[in-house]
Amino acid sequence: MPYIPHTPEEVREMLDVVGVASIDELFAEIPDELRPSGLDLPAGMTEMAVRSAMEGLASKNRTDMSSFLGGGFYDHYVPSASDMLISRGEFATAYTPYQPEASQGTLQAIFEYQTAVTRLFDMDCSNAGVYDGGTALYEAVMMAVRHTRRKTVVVSEAVNPIYRIVLSTYTKNLRLTLVTVPHAMGADDMAALARAVNAETAAVVVQNPNFFGVIQDFTALFTAARDQDAVSIISCYPVLQTVLKTPGAMGADIATAEGQSLGLPLSFGGPFLGIMTCRKDLVRQMPGRIAGRTRDAAGRTGYVLTLQAREQHIRRQKATSNICSNQALCALRALVNLCLAGEEGLIRQAALSIENAHYAAMRLSSIPGVRLLTPDAPYGNEFSVLFPINGKKVARALMDQGIVPGFPLGRYYPGLENALLVCCTEKHGREEVDRLARRVEKAL
Amino acid sequence: MKTVFDTSVPGREGVWPEKPRTEPVDFLPEGLLRSGRPNLPSLSELDVVRHFTRLSSKNYGVDSNFYPLGSCTMKYNPKFTEEVAALPGFSRLHPLLPQLPGGGDMASGALEVIHETERLLCEITGMAAFTLHPMAGAHGELTGALMMAAYHADKGHVKTKIICPDSAHGTNPASAAIAGFDVVSIASKDGIIDPEALAAVLDDQVAGVMMTVPNTLGLFERHLPRIVELCRKVDALLYYDGANLNAILGKLRVGDAGFDVVHLNLHKTFATPHGGGGPGSGPVGVSERLIPFLPVSRVFKDEAGRFSLRYDYPKSIGYVAPFYGNFGVVLKAYAYILRLGREGLPRVSEYAVLAANYLRKRLDDVLDVPYNRTCMHEFVASAERQAKRGVRALDIAKALLDKGYHAPTVYFPLIVKEALMIEPTETESKDTLDGFVADLRDILALAETDPAAVTAAPVTLPVGRLDETHAARAMEITDDLG
């Protein structure tokens, strides 16, 4: 019996102690008419057979292509030591650290993670993480709604469109109004955003770099929001944040991010990590776990989950959120990766990604008929490029040759059917970019 | 132990990529750049490996310790599933790929895993369809509550309330509230839902009733058929919190029993590791009448056996997650289901229930067991007797830590005083269970003779009981605050 250790003799002894003749007697309370005769499932398989079946399925996925696909989810290099450390059973097979004395490993790691991301974003406080960047953004909006007691949220159209759809799913039932401010050829329309923020606004939500890859300074917008007592929320990209002006320096009240780029595999969309940081005065509105440093009676330093009065197991329906997990192992992976690369390693990762993307943009935009969507705008490791033909056609032609050239923007932005969003990381060397450019030129 | 920041030595080389030819300032105006460095650690690879290896030694996990944490199903997590999830064909797959022209075919192995996992979960639970998008149990509850709201809105009902029994998990009322409902709590009778108490509050304003079977006391809800009948009368939907599914695999299919919405916890029943608090996975299953409201995307299999993603479901509640859920976790659960198959899954519940009853019988003379009858996969004891001598449930929990066991869940469910909720799971040997009984009995004997020795626990761990009040007041939640 896989994973069940009992011998027939032991089962007999246990049944005797319980005082029943068979295991089936233990299920006597379930009415007969509700008892299925069996499960119509395949028969059990050996470990070897399951692995072989799963290898077969994995081989049907094309992950061997040269890919410039990003859109907020990036293929950065992950140091080997990272996998080894986070697969330690003491971390991986523990539960949420409700018994702090037996969970100091997880708790100190969360504390260190909180410290690392607040430093990265230049913010005061962080929680232990939520599900992903999309739910982090939704939870940030809900913090603002509770804090301001207002029900209108201004969102830039240049925020990841998938996150905006997630946001609308959750806010629909709560009768919140989402005001979406159109982008201006890939850039955030700062004047229109500022005009949309008024005394009814709970929050203004932007992203840096935005979905089109454009990097901006939101300081003036955040100042305008503060004048209306609205909360400024920015979704950012952690790896680039080592070199870009920080959310804190721009005056953001809440900064969120998808933490996948900090060493998590793409894994077809999850598990990822939602990073949430905020200013100190908003911390009691923050959902999720938070670790804090304290001491025991002997004066020894230790860590506990703190500010738990916000949470559902204490507050039930009055809690700040229903979230009760924090993707802990993903947060640990982000922390481990950040430590392995170190400050210099991360800065190099960012600089190399930016360098490679600028080389790719130069190569692509020098093809006749091809130009950047937002020609004068600064960008980081990702940029939007306009072709004389439909971006989907370009993608299709190159994918047949083993290259994923980027994401066709027309899927979420009507009018941008000819545009592709192209990303680079430190993994994209010049040869790979040259090959992309040659194939694009041929495809046009 | 020092933090990783305390051990940092500026300039020490880590796992660095090559030196770039350029600097960001060559491309970006200075005003868009960070003014200083982020003050992150600089460490050698060995520094990092040693730091985190040492941290790990300060944790209890299933791999190192018996973990009878009630309601959490801390069973053994088979290791081969980790390798399955790490196969490059899965781990390197970009989630946007199937949104590209022809990309669905390039991710067909992953789409097949999703489709097949949904199908197997339907068979296991008796539901008509599943979504794997919710990323944890509580996320599944919220998804379920949103679908219940959409169902009633579609029928033109105005329903504002959701009923939860007083024994419910805290996430149930929290999720219902976040979906926009008012929460009504009903009192249990004899440890289970009292149909009369339910009938008294079940008016046409009620959108649904959220239950757990077996409930958080580890008891089967004997009035289930009557509850289903009452709900049908007012078109209230019945929601199943799958936290306790480990008790009923192959013994009860909740879809057959009349439930309309079900969330499962793959990290409990289907043996994926809890990770110290995630990542989990909380798939949601629905009955036929709720299918139109499932979140998008959905995986579609055509007659030729080709898989694709579909978004054209006008009544769908929308996106509850950016992509397809915690796919890496789903892979592990899928591999586990294939491994156990039709004989193995019912066996899980059989031996989980046997182990719980065995522990209950071996302990019910030294601990009070308020509802002392055949339990399912867990039971709830009470330390009320010991509390009178000054040894509370929490003290017993801490004393168990000293003996190398993770503690049971304490003070939950709320309806039992000094609750100790014990769930041994099917994967623990009789030797382990007997060792636990002997050590727990020793602790309870010590509580009689020397209560102070128990209340002083833990004494063998890196720290003793920590000052939580100080933590909340000092608010030292990063190295830079407090």
The CATH homologous superfamily of the largest domain in chain A is termed Type I PLP-dependent aspartate aminotransferase-like (Major domain)
Number of strands of chain B: 14
Structural domain count of chain A: 2
- Give the CA-based shape of chain A: globular
The radius of gyration over CA of chain A amounts to 25 Å
The overall strand count of chain A is 15
Rg of chain B, Å, rounded:
25 Å
* Total number of helices of chain A: 14
Please list the strands of the largest sheet of chain A in the order they lie side by side. Answer: 2-8-7-6-5-3-4
Q: Give the helices and strands of chain A as they follow along the chain.
A: HHEHHHEHEHEHEHEHEEEEHHEEHEEEH
The profile of the biggest β sheet of chain B is: 7 strands, mixed
What structural category characterises the helix and strand content of chain A? alpha/beta
Helix proportion range of chain A: 25-40%
Mean pLDDT rating of chain B? 96
Strand order of the largest sheet of chain B: 1-9-8-7-6-2-3
